[in-house]
């Protein structure tokens, strides 16, 4: 077990029955490391058969490894026992050493094989005459040109030899794969713990739309995180489903949101049940992990939701979290990892007994009884259906080309939606997909199966190194801080009490317990670096890092930037980052030390503005009554599609500038202000307004305090685009 955890180069394990449980080497740190996986010492009567629990423990840590079992017992019965089904092969003692050797090689070769990439390489080496609509294929139009030959010199010949619009001759169709793309997708499904996997070549925005179009119809209700990626909001427009927005807990000091509390999701379901709408709720959509690293307890969320609505489907947008499958600490918090746990729990006799006891105890409670929010609800094994979808931006955390994405499916009822799923694929998939993106998805899967454990461990360690160096460096820590778990996850959502991965005295068992049980955890590879104490807003600091120091990053907030380590990073990258932070801190220190009092006062005022004078984050208000089925309903779902297309009628719209006094007068006296479109400021990058939403004073105040340059859906010259209430036909706001 210790070798499986520490030796990242292992590719297979051979277990020979007859070993002892207790090691002759007594080391406390070893026991602490292994305890979460092996538990306590087995009873004497079980000590003769330790191979099976050991194999299970190994598989739970590194599911990609092949496990071979050597036994001197009845190997024929073992081979036919379902409990041993996950073991690659069973041998009688060391009867056939050559077969053992060949089995080990075959297992590695199977993971190494990339069906589509191998065929594409073979295709590129064939002498082919192309008479189809792709002049760039074979590269002749490039290398024979007098003007664009430098493109060929830059990219190389193989890129063009591997281009084709053909789907035969060794290639395959992404729309209806039956050959090597299908084989590659099947390999990906196995690698990521799914029943099925589907490759997507135009990003997870498209993956999300495919899933939601397949599962939703007009007037279906979707419970969705209001701060999710814009692709989900647009999917509601496309499908005609009614979004019921649930709010994540706010972190206003850093202008960001965390995760949606489980109690808020349960409350939404219970309210819908009370109003007789539960049958219309088809899907729950959550982002896991969020941009800032908040990770749900996916099993707990699905378990309690299924206790209320047993056939609810789940879409986990794991655009940033695809790598987590290859971390034994994070895997259980992925959609597919939790789906496996759900099925295991539903087949467990002890779980069934616990459910029956709870059902008897709670049967007298009303559907809206507050006690249900505090209760850890259990699923009914007889009625629950496991229906889990997970979308990964493979290019964001693995070695795939940009826009490479996957849809992972573990749905017991997929046969009911397979036809609509295929139609959604046809709707959103290009008939000219990029062959190189498909190949890179195939290769990314190969890499993660063979060395993903090592790469993710390295990325995590580098993140810890950055945290440690920033916090202990006397100059950097004076102006910069990396937010801890305590900063980003309120106490109520972390029962473990873990405050920081690197806090002095933190036991390994506490970290494992937090990642296993806390309602919200923090992805250790995502580092929120607060730059406000140095007088920088996030955008300015990002530009400084990029333009002056060649350090690239993505997300910013009002007073922070987000750093993330991935499988591409090295210790040299970390050293470069630390050196840059030291230089910036030193320059700032020297400037303040030699400055007059006026400059220091200006600096302090800037820090005060960035760190203290922060705008409150607005919650979703409500849809205008015309876009709701009933203005008196206690549930807030709305017809976003009708509102969206109403804005196509220019006569139904008006514009008012953000600081115009007319807005304040209408907030006070009416008519109501109704958003005509999505308004998405970057940062924070989520819609603060959606079509049909009533604009409140809180939202208006937030917009007026925004000091960002990029706001999608808002033209400063024209002002807010609004729907005229008289054009909709209802003038009384809710």
Describe the structure.
InterPro entries: LL-DAP_aminotransferase, Orn/Lys/Arg_deCO2ase_major_dom, PyrdxlP-dep_Trfase, PyrdxlP-dep_Trfase_major. Its cofactor is pyridoxal 5'-phosphate. This is Biodegradative arginine decarboxylase. Residues 114-339, 379-569 form the Orn/Lys/Arg decarboxylases family 1 pyridoxal-P attachment site domain. Keywords: Aminotransferase, Lyase, Transferase. The protein is α/β, with parallel strands linked by helices and 734 residues long. The protein folds into five domains: 2-112, Rossmann fold (3-Layer(aba) Sandwich), CATH 3.40.50; 129-163, no CATH class; 180-441, 3-Layer(aba) Sandwich (Aspartate Aminotransferase, domain 2), CATH 3.40.640; 446-611, Aspartate Aminotransferase, domain 1; 625-728, Alpha-Beta Complex (Ornithine Decarboxylase, Chain A, domain 4). It has 30 helices and 22 strands. The strands form seven sheets. The chain has a seven-stranded mixed beta sheet, with helices on both faces. Strand 2, helix 4 and strand 3 (89-92) form a beta-alpha-beta unit. Helix 10 runs parallel beside helix 20, helix 12 packs across helix 27 (640-646) and helix 13 (262-274) packs parallel to helix 14 (298-308). It is globular and about 90 Å long. The mean pLDDT is 93.
